[in-house]
Every structure is written in structure tokens, then in C-alpha cells.
Amino acid sequence: MAQDEETVQATLAGGVLELVLNRPDRLNAFNDDMHLALRAQFERAHADEAVRVVLLTGAGRGFCAGQDLGDRDPRKGGPTPDLGATLEIFYNPLIRLIRSLEKPVVCAVNGAAAGAGANLALACDIVLAAKSARFIQAFSRIGLTLDAGGSWSLARILGEPRAKGLALTAEPLDADTAAQWGLIWKAVEDAALMDEARALAAKFAAGPTRGLGLTKRNIQAAATNSLDAQLDLERDSQREAGHTADYAEGVTAFLEKRAPVFKGK
Q1: What is the pLDDT of residues 181-207, one digit of tens each?
Q2: pLDDT by residue (tens digit) across 96-106?
Q3: What is the largest CA-CA distance in the chain?
Q4: Tally of CB atoms within 10 A around 86
Q5: pTM for the predicted model, two decimal places
Q6: Calpha distance 115→252 (Å, rounded)
Q7: Where in the chain is the domain with CATH 1.10.12?
Q8: Which CATH superfamily is domain 2-205 in?
């Protein structure tokens, strides 16, 4: 089943919902239409049991250049824009949808990921990047601060010194260094990016969806939970996972020395 939209191309096959940001002439920078289209697809991923993993990438030579500034040219005059409203209406709901989706989200960064585009990628669960890709916290270049969860992600993943360095200098971070620092999962050769990303997505789509979703939820919760709270969460999550058909299939397959056939239930 395929659905093509002007700004986001979506294809669902084999449990993988592949989403392609599709404004290549603008380096896939966000306008209102693309915001709404991408949000609709992640809402679909939440609601549709046929979706067992999401794969996000960009069309053309870049992943996403963040917000399209063409509609906000101060030379046109008029009142200053309410950028907080842009975050509240568009970016914040999207980041929350990605983080709360109890299914894996794989991001294949195929080129420059700048500003909110970089932080969109970092909101995903597994980030693969082409070796030519660059992550750029470009906000300070135009007098802004981090958004789309960037201050949260960078500080937690890299720590305060590197987070501040990237944010204040706006220096590009290459994919190899991003992987070495633990900011992303892996840097791969450009020509291999989509093959590897799709193979990983297919592996997740054939996996125990509920168990993977609970794992994602628990790891995210660990950043703010106490040990006692985390132990309780693990207990409750394991109880839930133990009642799934996929757990029964996994144990049966192990005992029968065969590959499991998970149904995502």
C-alpha cells in the first residue's frame, strides 16, 4: 500500500512504514504542509497495528535543513513571528509522537541534517548516517536557541560540554565523529545507507513488536527514574511482555531450535 503526498512520501510494506521527506529543492526544510503530513504519518503509526516499524529519510542530497525560513523573511516587514507558537503547534507534537511510539523508529540521515532537522533525527531510536552526512546545530547562526528537543537530546547523550560546544559554535559534526561520540548508532558508506537501513527496519518489523516497544519505553524512562522506580517499571513491563504470543513463540522456537516467527502480538 503506498500513499504519495506533496511533501512526505509514505509506503507501508512488510510492516515497515517508510517515510521520505520530499522537498528536495529546499533540502527538505519544513513548511506547514510537511509538518502536518509527517505528523499524520506518525499518528498513523500509533494507530495502525500493521505498522511495526517506521523508517524515516529524506529525498535528494540532504536529510532536512530544519525550518524553511523563506516564509519568515524580515525584509518583508510586518510583525515579528511567534516562534514559540511554531514549536507548540508543529515541532513539539511531532517529537512527542516519535518518542511515545512504542515501535522502533529508524532514521537514515542521507545528507545534511541542520537545526530542527538534526534534532528530528536525534528523536528517533536508531540513527544511521551516510559518511558524507553532517549534523549542524545551526540555531546560533541566526540568533536562536535549540529546539525540537535538541537541548534535551544533546545534553543527555553527549553531556554538557559537547552539547554546548555544538550549540554555541554551530560547527558541523561529521557522521563518523557523531558515531564515535555515541550521538548516533552508526555511520555507513553513502551507497550502503538505504540498504542497511531497510534491512534493519525489516528485522525490527519481523521482531516481537510489543517487547521492542516496551524496551524503548523503559530505556527512555531511565533518564528520569530512580533505581527503585526503574526496577518497578521493569517488573511491570516484563509481566506484560510475558503475556504476549510473541514471548510464547520465542521460547517455543528456542526449545525447538528454529527461528521464531513473531506476529507482533
Answers
A1: 999 999 999 999 999 999 999 999 999
A2: 999 999 999 99
A3: 71
A4: 18
A5: 0.93
A6: 47
A7: 209-255
A8: 2-enoyl-CoA Hydratase; Chain A, domain 1 (3.90.226.10)
